[in-house]
Predict the structure.
Amino acid sequence: MTKSDIAASFKELQGYICRRLNEVDKSAEFLSDDWKRNQGGGGITRAVSGGEFIEKGGVAFSEVFGPVTESMAKQLKLDGVEFFATGVSIVLHSKSPLHPIIHMNVRYFEMDNGTYWFGGGIDLTPIYIDKLKAKKFHLGLKNLCDGYDLDMYLKYKKWADDYFYLPHRNETRGVGGIFFDHLSKSEKMTKNQVFEFCIALGKLFPELYSAQLSTNNNDKVNEATLQWQMLRRSRYVEFNLLHDRGTKFGIYSGGRTESILMSMPPVAQWSYNFKPEETSNEANTLALLKKDIDWLK
Amino acid sequence: MTKSDIAASFKELQGYICRRLNEVDKSAEFLSDDWKRNQGGGGITRAVSGGEFIEKGGVAFSEVFGPVTESMAKQLKLDGVEFFATGVSIVLHSKSPLHPIIHMNVRYFEMDNGTYWFGGGIDLTPIYIDKLKAKKFHLGLKNLCDGYDLDMYLKYKKWADDYFYLPHRNETRGVGGIFFDHLSKSEKMTKNQVFEFCIALGKLFPELYSAQLSTNNNDKVNEATLQWQMLRRSRYVEFNLLHDRGTKFGIYSGGRTESILMSMPPVAQWSYNFKPEETSNEANTLALLKKDIDWLK
């Protein structure tokens, strides 16, 4: 399996995910922007907007290569001259405050000295946490992981708790998910199986998202829930611009800004020192934005 | 002049600026939050909202001291054991898209080994650039600087152009202003004069802001200008969270989050790959978001 095979599979995965999402949300519009990178490679950005469920987001594919730049060498601690990187990245901002923000990424990195690794992750950011829906999400991930390595789910779930975390707010971004990096192969998985795991995670994405949607509780959408959604979206902005390694690396290394910042919400709101009322639904959600919660219970 | 004298003057400056701003905008509400820092010192945050002109913002004073932490030593390249820092920071988000976002900061830093320096800056971010108003702003700054050192305005104006810049957008944040750092004294200025310059800049702030306001063009506020304002505000968010050294240092070193992120706009909007129509007012403003423009012409 060459790097070109992997990139081709990731490109197919992008197409598959867009088709499945469009079946789930028939009124969503999927633009397609092809772009080239001056130093080598490029990508296809599918910006999504105006759906019944998806207000704004995107499904991005990229395949870039060329000389290792100074900022890459420094930030990624790379040992080599030429790199190759390909991946699929998704962020979807749901229209309804009863539906979550969701993110997924799978990526492959290879150096000319022969080293390679896969990385990826998925995490769910409900505006209001519903424990049953969080359980459904984590159960889907556990079932996927268990098909490859029984130790994987807990290890990668913990990694996600640590990664999708806002230290300046002492809050997790949401109910977490899984996160992994620098995975080339393991005692239990060949390179091919790691690759298959990434593809399987990508194919599971539309199912995990659609399982979070519901159509019969529009009565709970009101000014207060919409305002809470706007405040939670500003936390998402803070995480991505202050802490997310992928976003920061992309921006500082001269990546395509519009593809990287496709992850930004349609609208976000900041309010000085906002505190929800005690025992409100908003306060209940805040209390669950903690690491190390066992959502499978 | 001791560090305590300087802190006391900065605290008075905060009060003066709030009073003057409240004369300009009588309906604006100024909250007052006192906070303590565990390792030493604290501050007073005056969050502003709900004005006729000012939609959201703040005027913050802080006086913090204690052992130099690891992240301070690394990011500020500090040589010493104990530090003392005090300053006043302002960001105001105007309600009308015809009025600008404005920022100012003056600060003083002292180490136990005897080294000290002042820093500061002010910059203007109009939603629509009006060259006459930009000229008025820069003329006010030039007049101030010229009272101390005839070389200062051009030097600090260039520094502001370089600092208030979004490389990932290839845009300046607005029409710039002045920026300076590590200023202890110079051939032309004693420590006392540098301090006076900082205070004078602070006192000039309310006048510079009120000169940008106008009350008789509400007819130009419509859906299109309000949307452009929301998009420009998202650029402000991007600058502050991705590039602003003060914000990043504050957040990563465990500063008071609500005081640091007081700079965030009330609401911001992101739209994938938004391009204003050619020759529109929006496109004309974009074309002026460049370094090295002589606004005094």
Chain A touches chain B through 31 residues (CB under 8 Å). Chain A has a mean pLDDT of 95. The radius of gyration of chain A is 19 Å.
